[in-house]
Amino acid sequence: MFIGHFAPALVVAARPKAAGLGALFIAAQLVDIGFAALLIPGVEAMRIVPGITAMNPMDLYHMPFTHSLLGASLWAAAFGLLVWASTRRRPAAIGAALVVVSHWFVDLFVHIPDLTLFGTPPKLGLGLWNYPAVAMPLEILLIGGALFWYARRTQAPSGNWRLWILAVLLALFQAIDWFGPKEPIYSPAIPATMLTAYAVLALAAAWAGANRTVRAA
């Protein structure tokens, strides 16, 4: 799952007093941002195993601090506190924290068993990455439905053109993830690419949501 993780961000951003869309895009991928950052010094680890799943050659064999439910909850609490400190809005903080922890539950559907509850076995994952005919439409449905919801529940003086540019960027990044060339072995280029992609999409989301307000009920 890649852009499907942004669906909860878009849903929460359509609520009154929510954090900004850019911050919520960071929240949606904070677990993977942390994973990429921890890969660089070797605190967490992965390797490339072609064919390990039909859609993703990454063997994510050691990520107790980010992809355990406990770890994701701690990242969520920390990010929620940061949002509260910067906005002093409890709904914004709670919404942002929920978006962070949603990452683990979305991953649970697509990962093979490499997620944990507390950083140790048993390892969990329903393995939809082995079923592209299910996983790909599910991702499109999640992000498409969330974009539609956000567009209907918010408004901008200049219309929706910024939001559609964001949608095109999301589609482009997902197409690259699905159909682009894969690294044959693990290298620091993998976490660097991850961090760059998340930064670009968060900036695009901040720009797309900057002039949008929630419609009156």
Structure annotation, total helices: 8
Which band does the percent of strand residues land in? Answer: 5-15%
Task: Give the termini distance in whole angstroms.
Answer: 32 Å
Structural domains: how many: 1
Give the SSE order as H and E letters: HHHEEHHHEHHE
Task: Walk across the major sheet and give the strand order.
Answer: 1-2
Categorize the overall geometry: globular
User: What's the story with the biggest beta sheet?
Assistant: 2 strands, antiparallel
C-alpha-based Rg, rounded: 17 Å
Helix/strand structural class: mainly alpha
Q: Using DSSP, what is the number of strands?
A: 4
Overall helicity: 55-70%
* Average of per-residue pLDDT values: 97
pLDDT < 50 stretches: none
Question: How would you characterize the overall build of this protein?
Answer:
This protein is mainly alpha-helical. It has one domain. The protein has 8 helices and 4 strands; from the N terminus they run αααββαααβααβ. A two-stranded antiparallel ribbon has the order 1-2. Helix 1 runs parallel beside helix 6, helix 2 (21-28) packs parallel to helix 5 and helix 4 (69-87) packs antiparallel against helix 5 (90-110). The chain is globular, with a radius of gyration of 17 Å. 39% of the residues are buried.
